[in-house]
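haha ok so turns out i had the wrong file open the whole time. this is the CORRECT one, sorry everyone. sequence first:
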Amino acid sequence: MGFEKGPLGLVGLTLALLASPASAHHSFAQFDNSRSLTLSGTVTSFQWTNPHGYLEIDTADARHYVFELTSPNMMSRGGWTSRTIKPGDVVTAIEAPLRDGKPGGLLLEVILPNGKHMLPGVPNAERYKRTS
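then structure:
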């Protein structure tokens, strides 16, 4: 058992190595790291899923926002569990907004109904400027 020798074997190995990382993760380039938005709303969904969690809220002005979070592994290091946020909770979310202007972004921090501040463990969080 082994790899086929010659150009075809090398091409196959190269394609296999390149395909794995590409499907495993994406860039954070879609989020604007030069500003932040602070929004309050009612949680409609909290997904504790790999590779990223998601939080969805409806704001008082009837807008629906979808926030991407980090992985459950990263969030659990900061004290999160799958039950940290529940549908119906009223939360304040601080986000790095999407560059395309759609309602959503990367969750930088959330303030729970009891006033507790939770950080989702965003890699290189210091690179995201807080402006609101």
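The CA atoms of residues 48 and 82 lie 6 Å apart.
again sry for the mixup
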